[in-house]
Every structure is written in structure tokens, then in C-alpha cells.
Structures
1.
Amino acid sequence: MQIKTLKELAEHVNATVFGDGNIKISSASTLDRAGEGDITFLANDKYEKQLRTTKAGAVIVSEKFRTAAENGEIKTALLIAENPYYAFTQIMVLLFGHRKHKNIGVSEKASISATAKLGENCDIHDFVVIADNVKIGSGCTIYPGVYIAEGVTIGNDCIIYPSVTIYDGSIIGERVIINANSTVGEDGFGFATANGSHHKIPQVGIAILEDDVEIGTCCAIERGTLDDTVIGKGSKLGDLIAIGHGTKIGEHCLLVAQVGVAGSARLGNYCVVGGQAGIVGHINIGNGVQIAAQSGVINDVADGKAIFGSPAIEISKARRAYSMIQYLPDIRQSVRKLQKQIDKITSSNNPDSQESNK
Amino acid sequence: MQIKTLKELAEHVNATVFGDGNIKISSASTLDRAGEGDITFLANDKYEKQLRTTKAGAVIVSEKFRTAAENGEIKTALLIAENPYYAFTQIMVLLFGHRKHKNIGVSEKASISATAKLGENCDIHDFVVIADNVKIGSGCTIYPGVYIAEGVTIGNDCIIYPSVTIYDGSIIGERVIINANSTVGEDGFGFATANGSHHKIPQVGIAILEDDVEIGTCCAIERGTLDDTVIGKGSKLGDLIAIGHGTKIGEHCLLVAQVGVAGSARLGNYCVVGGQAGIVGHINIGNGVQIAAQSGVINDVADGKAIFGSPAIEISKARRAYSMIQYLPDIRQSVRKLQKQIDKITSSNNPDSQESNK
Amino acid sequence: MQIKTLKELAEHVNATVFGDGNIKISSASTLDRAGEGDITFLANDKYEKQLRTTKAGAVIVSEKFRTAAENGEIKTALLIAENPYYAFTQIMVLLFGHRKHKNIGVSEKASISATAKLGENCDIHDFVVIADNVKIGSGCTIYPGVYIAEGVTIGNDCIIYPSVTIYDGSIIGERVIINANSTVGEDGFGFATANGSHHKIPQVGIAILEDDVEIGTCCAIERGTLDDTVIGKGSKLGDLIAIGHGTKIGEHCLLVAQVGVAGSARLGNYCVVGGQAGIVGHINIGNGVQIAAQSGVINDVADGKAIFGSPAIEISKARRAYSMIQYLPDIRQSVRKLQKQIDKITSSNNPDSQESNK
């Protein structure tokens, strides 16, 4: 852990200090738990009230709080940054760094094929199995229990956490992180039904994770039947995500936990998919599309759209519409009542039925 | 397996025998499959009819069946218990016991750091890896392929099933059970987006599983960014559950398979969350809240509420409302028809339009 | 890889050649990517337009395209087959074969109990653990990191991918495939709540996978409490699927990724369950039932039904009804407007209120 002054941190993240720049910061915490020596941040408006009560040494905020600070409404020292969350991230990296991986070299308890090629400075832990014709770049860390099947290629500086399985032929880029118990390149779910049973289709496409991809734990990235499955450069997947065969996830997408994307779907770049959302196969999702949690996407989506619901529709419309499901019993009752009122009016306007009402 | 008389079982679970207390019980089964020598139970009203037809040696029931038994409507011997399901559980434990774990000691094929500390009577299986500075209590069973990262603490009498990964610094209480292929303490899904890419935020919180927690298979319990992620004492998680970073699950909660709880959410004690339900981040769920399967919870929930739906609302209201989605086409058509009828009435009340109708 | 003429392929799959039967086919691809020497297929109408533009050597199509071919509208050589997808599958198997598993015999780095029995020609990889009294048939491939607990039985010709865990007593049929990181036979989620805590119920049923079952990655198949959990012959499960305790999946079912089936549910034969669908416990689903993605099934379903929605209803009705949720705000507003119009009409028909309106 590092100790820095607030002024040093401001320089590091290109932010402005409001208050005492000589405050010493050694750690970070949340607004409600931070104390002296801690830096924290405000990026979610929900917590704005805590800005007045926090005991933090300093808070990273956006420009819009400058006036409140100048008016003396905020007592805490501030770092005013264009993107407070990113400034906070840079400071976290400075103070704590990323996880350190012990330098262990290549364990004698790992099983590595004579035909596998390892780059320099790799740490290969106990009980790793690396099959024939695998190529691994330099600076990779492969944790215990990982299995890397025949012909897999892995770039430089990757981290593969324990018990990950990478099926044959998969291609992993540089600086890729795969968390524990995930699987890459297993057979796509492809069966042809004939004569009363389901016949497995050889899956000859592969799975490709491009540079800077991170995969959560317990994810399943199928290989393609014919086309390859691709997770584009810089995309980050949460935990327990299922990606179907031949699906293309674009670059710099964020997929939150438990998302499922069926086979042969295409997502553009910079898409964000909320938790538990599902996307059917064979559709095209544009660039910059935002899909809210639990949505069910069944049609193509144009660039830049934000959608929600199952079936998913434009989000502002969906928020209103789905929140009105609760009024369905009232609406139905109102409609019935209206029908009765109208029947009464109609019949009272009709001399024959008036007769019968006598 | 034990053989007991019905009377002995009654004493063991503090229940009343109705019928022959000398019947010998050696096993247990379901109402429809049980035969002589089997005990079974009725806890779900759905199966009440089978109480008259079961071939079981004895059935554990609640007080409300006493009258039917006294009237001779039920032929089978009964154990009348306050909580039949709990009585059945106690009898299952008596007759079968919990899974026995072979006493193997510490395998020579496990890789255990010299700086790790193991309590007495631990069984550490082949191909387990225990990293530096890990502390494990006494009486723990660690199955093959488990990886326990640096600085993890595990209490007494825990069972860690195969291929579980516990990331660095996690704290596991006493009598905790973690089923196969689950992951505890992986990095939270935290990225700051700037300059066109997503920057990983060091996750310096940890994951804590308190005493008597059970985690299913393929679960993912993220560590916190700043705050710790906590699964409270006695809580039980099913399979394929994702818990976000910094989330607090209270004590004695039950989370059914495939539940997802996003980061920084808080659940109180004694909550029950049905399968595939999702809870968004940064909300507060009170104590004793019941969330039905597939719900999507997006707002705070007060103590004791039962909710359902996506978005989730009070359950009795939700059941009615969601079951009426099927009537939407009818309702829409009725509304259109009413509009036409009213337009006609309005126009017939209007002399000018009457003119034009001639 | 094999090279075949189109005529040879036609004979192999019992199809008719339309065009030059001497074309040489060495590989397969998708309609839009295929080139000379590639065979492809058309099974999804969505891609029909590509039939006119594909550069493929040949395309497998159904009978209905014969006329277009005879009219010279399709330039590419065709294989006309009764079931194009199955014909394609057979050709894929012919050209590529299924995954080859290296013949390695029984690794010295595997830990195999002296009381375990292995059939002939098994490949048992490094770091596999096979516990006491396990029986494995002949021709099985068990990949690294697999754990097979006490008393498990596995039939002939099974493939168990890395880091799979099979709990004690499970029974696996012949030609079963279990993909990486899946778990079979873990304890059912069964707890009795009493005195403020949840008491674990010994789960004495087992998990049974019948012949020709395939299980995806990261699946969780619970053992039964009393009854066994059964996945019927020929059924195929995608990734990240949770099957509850005592549940029976019939024969030849297809369950797509992230499906959850709660305990004691019964599915008939030839059911298809779409991705992320959930099925509650203790219900009966007939034979040949089709459940669309993300459905929530809470009631018994008769043979042959197709359903969708949460709660799930008949699919054609559901598609219409759920697609109308978006109109709820309009409907509600219309109903209010109608009410006002009717109130006005009613009051204008009422002399007293007319009086008060003066």
C-alpha cells in the first residue's frame, strides 16, 4: 500500500483539489465507512446525501459539486474530476495495484506436453495439464487444475484461474483473464433430430477470445458449429454467462452475470447487457445497445437503442408499460363496468329495450 | 442404516404415535413409493390424497390429520408432529446420517504451502493446492482439485467439495459446506469506462461466508470492491447462484438455484428467494422477505413482504395481475369496441352528426 | 478431413443431386462464408435469400426448393434431402468425424482406488481421482481433474471432460458425455426450518443419467432426497442448467442453456425447453411439450402443448398477449377517457345533474 497526498493524487488523475491538498491518503473506502486517510468517490446520485456526512479524508466528485463546495456546504476535501469513477479507479490502482501473482515458474507437478510451447516468464502451477501443440505466450499465469486442450493458442500476459478448461483449438488473445471454473470452446448445442433421436453435429468452429477480454467464473463459451464464436477485444463478461455457438460479441461490451446469448447472434461494439438478460439466436444487435436486466431480446436492435422487457422494447416505453401490469385487474374491471354502463345507455336509448325494462 | 420402532422414532422427534408403535422402520421413501418398513411424510397438501393409498409403514403428519385418523379414514400408522418436515429430517438423520467422509488424512499428492496452517483431523485429498498463509481449522475435509489461495481463513469442520476455488483473503466460518465447482472471492465485476475501454478496478474487499453457510455447485460469490461481500450465518444457497460485489446476504436466508443478486444489495435475515429471481444492486431488502421465482426486484422491500413479478410487486396482487396478461388482447379489443359504441352514442346525441347519419 | 464428390455424399445421406454430382467437397461452411469445395445447408428460412448468392460448392435443401432449381433460379448445385439438417449432420460426421481423444491409457498421475474397477481401453488422464468401489465400463475417456466419488457406476464409451465432479452413488449410462465443470449428484436443496435455523436433510436418492445423455458445461444435477433424479435416455442439456432433486427428465428431451427445473418435477419424452426457462417443482409436463425461452411454468402441461410466458400459457396466445404489454399505458389512458365520456353522457341523460351543470 502507498501513502500519497491529495495533491499527488490529483496530479496522477488530472483532477482539481478543493480543500487541503496536503491531506495524506493511504486507503480507500465507501462514503459511509471511510475515515481519515481514506479516499472515496461519488458516482451514483443515490449516495449524494452521504457527501455531507462522510468522515472520509477526501471524496472524488464531478464538476457539478464545485458550487456546493464553494458555498461551504461540503466540509470534506474534494478531488473534482471529469470522470470520478475512472479517477477513483486510477487511484485504486496506484494505492493497491492489481492482484500480485507469485513467481513460481513452471511447476514440476504440472503435466506439459513435449510439443507445447511456453513463452518466457510464465507461471504454471501444480496440476495444470497442457496438451499437445499448445502455444502459450510470455508472462502468463496458469493456476492449478487448468486444462488446456490440444492446439490451443494463448497470447502474452494472460491469467487463467483455477479449474478453467479450454477446449481444443481455441484462440486466446493477449492480457486475457479467465476466472475460475469457466469453460471456453466446449461443443455448441447442436443436434439434428431424426429417427427419434438427437444426432450430435461435429462442431468444427472454434472459440476466440480477443485481447483484453475478461471472463467471470462459471462461464460457458461454446465453440461454433461452422463459424467461430468470438468475444471481441476489451469485452468483459461477468459470472455464469452462456454464449452460444457461432455468436459474435463485439468489442468493449459489458455483459453482467447470468446473461445468455444464443447461437449465431451478433452484438456490436460497446453494448451493455444487464444481468439475466437473454438474447435469442440469429439476430443482430447494433453498436452501443443497452439491454436492461432480465430482458428477452427476440428481434434485431438498431445502434444506440436502450431496451427492456421480455419481449424487449424501447426502455422508457417498457419501464412505463411493465410497471402497469399491476393495474391489469383494475383495467379489466373498469372495462367490464364501462361495458355495462354503455349497454344500459344503449338500451335506454332503444325504445324496444326500454319497453322490456318496464 | 438403523432399524427403529415407530415409538422410538416418536420419542426421538417429540411426536405422538397414532397406530401401532411397535412397527419397525428401517428406511424412508415418498408417499407413492413407500412400502412396509418405510416411513414417509406429508408436508405438501398437494399429496394429501396419497395419505389414503400409501403402502408406507408410517407417515409423519401434522395435528390436523388427527381427526381423520380417529375416524378411521387413514389406515396407516401416523406420527403426529408439530413440524412434520422437521420431524422427518430428524428421522432421516437418525436412520441414514449425513454423508460420511473417508478418513484419509493429508494426502502426499496435495500441494500445501509451508506457511499454511492446518488444524487437527483434516482430510486433504489428492491434487488440492493450499497457498501461502492459509489457515484451516480442525476437522475439515477438502476434496480433490480444490484451490485455496493466499491468506484464506477456513474455520473448523468445513467440507469443500472438488474443484472449488477460494480466492485470496476470503474468510470461511465454521461448518461451512461448499459444493463442487463453486468459486468464492473472485473479483467483482467492476470497470470504469474511459477513453474507449473498460479499466479494471482493484477489488480490495473480500468474500466472507459465515458459520453454517452452505453453497451449491457452480456458484459465484464475488469479493467486494471496497466493502466485503458477506453471506450471513446459516444461509443456504442452491446451485448456479451469482452474488455481486459488496452484497450482504443476511442470516438464515434461503436462495434457490440460479438466483442473481447484483452488487451492494443488502438482504435481511430469513429471506427466501425463489429460483432465477434477480435483485438489482444498491437496494435494501428487509428481514423475512419472500421473493417468488423469476422475480425482478428493483426497489427496496420492507420487512416481511412477499413479492413476485418483474418488476416485483406484492405477491397476491402480482399473481392476479400477471395471470391477466393473457387477457390483454381481449381487453384491448373491448376498449376499441367501447370507443366505437361511445362514438356512436355521442354522435347520435349530436344533432349535426345525426344529420350526417341520415 | 475427407474429400468426397457430391454424388458420394448424396448416396451417403440418401439425397438427390441437382446439378453436377462430380463436384468435390472437402469442407463445410455457412451460406454466407462457404466457397468452392464447401458444402452448406439451408434449414432456417431466415437465410433463404442467401441461397441465391452463396458461393458454396453445394447446398443441402429440402424438396420445396426443387422447382426454383428446375427454373434455373438457383445456380449452386443442390443436395435435396428430406431432412436437410440431418443430412448436413451426417455429412459433417463423414467429413470431419467427432472429436478424437488421444489414446493415453491410464495415467500414472491419476489416483485410482484399489477397489475401483475399470473396463478395457479406458483413457484416464492425469490428476483424475476415482474413489472406492467405482465401476467404469470400457472405452471411457476421463479428462484431467475429474473426481468420481465412491460407488459411482459409469457405462461404456462415456466421455467426461475436465473438472467434472460426480458425487457418490450416481449411475451414468453408456455413451454419456459430460462437459467440463459440471456436477452430477450433489445434495438436493433440502432443508427443514425449525428453531430459527435450516436443518440439512440427508439426500439418500441418487442421480441417474441414462444412455446417450449429453450434459453441457457448468450444469448442476442434484441427487434426490428420497426419489432419484433421472435424465432420460438420449436427452441433451446445454450449459449452466440446474436440475432439482428427484426431478425426472424424460427421454430425448432438449434443454437449452440456463434452464432451471425445480425438484420433483416430471417432464415427458421429447420435450424442448428454451433458454433461461424455469419450471417449478412438483408439476407434470407431458410428452412432446415445447416451452419457449424465459418461460415460467407453474402448472401441469398436457402432451404436445407449446407454451410461453411467465406464467406460461399456450404459445400463440402468449406471443400476442405478451407483445401487447407495450400498449398498457395507451389502454389505461383509453379506459380513463372512456370513463369520462360515459360519465358525461350519463350526467347529460340525468335531468338532476344537468341542472347542476347549468
2.
Amino acid sequence: MATTAALSEKQKQFLQNPYVGVVTTLREDGSPHATVVWVDLEDDGTISFNTAAGRAKPRHLEKDPRVSLIVVNAENPYQWVAIGGRAEMTTDGADPQIDRLAKKYLGKDEYPWRNPEEQRLSVKIRPEHLDSSGFDES
Amino acid sequence: MATTAALSEKQKQFLQNPYVGVVTTLREDGSPHATVVWVDLEDDGTISFNTAAGRAKPRHLEKDPRVSLIVVNAENPYQWVAIGGRAEMTTDGADPQIDRLAKKYLGKDEYPWRNPEEQRLSVKIRPEHLDSSGFDES
């Protein structure tokens, strides 16, 4: 297992695969709450995911922005990348992002389950911890 | 997504597949720390995993036993079971457990990476939260 400060090129390539991530936020009592998300690697190397206002994840992150995200290779569970850090939530770019993720994960040009009453949110993770397994540098 | 108090029979069957789990513990500062584990469903329905003394997970759990574990179907990421609760660590049965998990995940009768200097630990989760996706009852 390697701990490094920034994603390597191999890790960035890995994150371009449509492997889901497990994101863990903290409930109000500080206990961990895990769910499955689609993962976006933005052009500037920021790792982010998309959610919607009112769900548990953004509610937790408003109280405590600390979050972990781990992406495991669906074909090889011994290869994974995990980051931990602080979440920054924004509505900016959140609608195009969910369409981009629908392309990555479903092969569709538009997110098929869009709900006009729902406010999408993009959650960017400012990394403080980075671990990985199954890369040459491990 | 369904929240129920106990694993259904379908969820128990699901957990007999060799799908890895993501376990999240809390660092001393309360931030979430995620890693990949093999998952055991014990005969009495307890969900547990195996680790070794001195690693980050047991160190974190000694300070704060709160833990989450999520198991995602490797072929269908929209099917998953997540539990959250308190961990109880024991050396009792930890050596047979790692061999049982080697059988489940590697098809081998004995854990091939046993280190005689290492004390294996079995970590049982006493569930307080149970969520799932992709089951009929969802």
C-alpha cells in the first residue's frame, strides 16, 4: 500500500474506468455512513462525485466536510485508490457533470433519471490522505 | 434503498459471494478511513472481517468502535448491502476465519500469506444501521 500526496498518472488512468466508488460521510453523531457513487476525475485532477440536495450525504457534509472515497477495480479487488479529505459542494457544473457521469457509467448522453425538482450538487474532494494498492508504485 | 433491522435471506445469500467489502473506521481525529476487506457471514448471521493486530483498522477501533461496511456486487454495482455499527474484536476463531476466507475468496484451503509473527483478529460488527439497494424488498 502506497501513501502519496497526489494521484499518479496510472491512478488517474485507473479512475477513468467506470468503477463505482464508496463514499463515506459522517452522521451527526460522528459515525460513518457509506454509499455507492459514480466518480468523476475532473480536468484539473480533482476527484468529485454528484449527488442531490436533501440527501444524507450533503446533509452530513454540511455539518462535517470530512469524507473518504475508495474506488475498487471491479475485475481485480486488490487494485484500489482511496482518498480522504474535505468536501466542497457546489451547484456550479453539477448538471453537466451528471450527464458526463451518465456517459461514463451508462454510455448515455444524458442522465436518464433527471428529476426537475431535484437540485444536483457536485462534491469536490480536497485530498488530505491518498492510499492505493495494486499499482506498480505500491 | 431499504433500511431494515436484520439481514434478509436474500441479503445473506448475497454475502456468500466472494465480493470484497469496503470497511470504514475513524481516525483518532474522527475522520473516515476506508480500506478493502474480505467479508465473513458467520453461522449466527454476524457480519465480520479479519485483520491483524497493529494495523490501522484495529488501532482505530480500539479508540472508537464505530465502523461501516459495504459490500457491492462486483458484476452489478447497483446491488449492495451496507451495515454500520460497533466492532467487537477477538483473537478467538481468527485463525480458522482467515483460512475460511481464503477458501471463499481464493479457493485455497489455507491463507497463503500467513505470517507467524502476526496476530490475526476477527472483527464482528454489531449492526445499528442496515441499508441495501438492488434487492426485491428495496
